[in-house]
């Protein structure tokens, strides 16, 4: 497949050149050009807890697109589909940490966990007050009895946004960590892939899939899920996925669910809006109100075809933080009107 890059060696840094040039909310840290930090309306790190995450490139706009007021303070950018090194993450922690402390958010994948935990220990040895919060929500990766073995998936965006808004409000490091754990316990995600992404390094498809099949539960790097289903009307696929999500984490009749419909990079807005409509209808049949949706391609895998559905049963505080204003290059304005109409 044809791709538009200068070279494999420079593609990540070329991307970051464009990113910091285009968006006034962010800049590069002096400690390392792969560390992207918040530039606008920055608060004193001795008074505000700072939030960081490191991740590989190739999944944009996550997570560098979520750096800014009301969300992340730093994103540490690794190579394509590769976790940043522990030294690089340490540079990010050093760049923004203060007396109020920091929380390193880690989407649970092996490289991210190993390097993130190592960076956390290195920072603590240097006297920096930082805690590591693993994030996991992909129900296809492990059963409910082993939630801690699950992968991080697009539902982790609930954690970024809710903790970001709460940190902006002035909550302490301990309060934010406990809030992050509580949000994590309320999130479930399931994905469906219809066509492979293409690696920018090799130009080759990342996996193969027959034209009449959909892979259910595939991870963001092409990790295997729970099996294959035949292509059919999207309402049947959404019914199947929502049923699995609610079996894994039930929401009582009369309850409410915040919803993320995430495209993987090769799925059109026409398709994603159809999926949202079917998800809302399906939840309504279970007696659950779908509120404050986030619909778009935010956790991508190089034009992979497919989508994921994430559900979070919010408390009132979580819902307020989810809908709080933010100023980042890529996080959308959550639909207040939808929330008001359904509350």
Automatic annotation (TrEMBL):
Q: Which GO terms describe its biological process?
A: glycerol catabolic process
**UniProt KW DNA damage keyword:** no
> Key word Transferase present in the record?
yes
The organism's taxonomy opens as: Bacteria, Pseudomonadati, Pseudomonadota, Alphaproteobacteria, Rhodobacterales
List the GO molecular function terms: glycerone kinase activity
Q: Name one GO cellular component term.
A: cytosol
Q: Which residues form a coiled coil?
A: none
Which Gene3D superfamilies does this chain map to?
Dihydroxyacetone kinase, domain 1, Dihydroxyacetone kinase, domain 2
Question: Mind telling me which InterPro entries this protein's record contains?
Answer: DhaK_dom, Dihydroxyacetone_Kinase
> Which residues, if any, are the signal sequence?
none
* Organism per entry: Parasedimentitalea marina
**What are the residue boundaries of the DhaK domain, all occurrences included?**
7-331
- Protein name in UniProt: Dihydroxyacetone kinase subunit DhaK
This protein's UniProt keywords: Kinase, Plasmid, Transferase
């Amino acid at each position: 497949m044809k791709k538009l890059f200068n070279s494999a060696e420079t593609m990540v840094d070329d991307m970051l050149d464009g990113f910091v040039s285009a968006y006034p909310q962010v800049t590069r840290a002096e400690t390392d050009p792969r560390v992207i930090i918040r530039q606008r309306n920055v608060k004193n790190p001795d008074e505000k807890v700072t939030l960081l995450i490191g991740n590989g490139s190739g999944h944009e706009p996550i997570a560098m697109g979520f750096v800014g007021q009301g969300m992340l303070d730093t994103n540490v950018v690794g190579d394509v589909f590769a976790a940043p090194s522990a030294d690089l993450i340490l540079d990010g922690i050093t760049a923004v940490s203060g007396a109020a402390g920091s929380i390193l958010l880690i989407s649970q994948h092996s490289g991210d966990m190993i390097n993130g935990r190592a960076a956390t220990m290195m920072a603590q040895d240097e006297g920096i007050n930082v805690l590591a919060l693993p994030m996991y929500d992909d129900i296809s990766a492990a059963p409910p009895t082993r939630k801690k073995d699950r992968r991080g998936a697009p539902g982790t965006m609930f954690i970024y946004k809710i903790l970001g808004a709460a940190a902006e409000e002035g909550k302490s490091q301990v309060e934010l960590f406990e809030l992050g754990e509580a949000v994590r316990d309320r999130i479930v995600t399931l994905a469906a892939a219809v066509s492979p992404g293409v690696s920018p390094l090799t130009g080759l498809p990342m996996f193969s899939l027959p034209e009449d099949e959909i892979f259910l539960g595939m991870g963001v790097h092409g990790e295997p899920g729970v099996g294959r289903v035949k292509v059919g009307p999207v309402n049947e696929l959404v019914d199947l996925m929502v049923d699995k999500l609610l079996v894994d984490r039930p929401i009582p009749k009369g309850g409410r669910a915040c919803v993320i419909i995430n495209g993987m990079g090769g799925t059109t807005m026409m398709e994603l809006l159809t999926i949202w409509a079917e998800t809302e209808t399906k939840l309504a049949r279970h007696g659950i109100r779908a509120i404050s949706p986030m619909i778009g391609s935010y956790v991508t895998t190089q034009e992979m075809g497919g989508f994921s559905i994430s559900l979070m049963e919010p408390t009132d505080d979580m819902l307020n933080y989810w809908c709080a204003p933010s100023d980042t290059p890529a996080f959308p304005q959550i639909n207040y009107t939808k929330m008001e109409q359904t509350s």
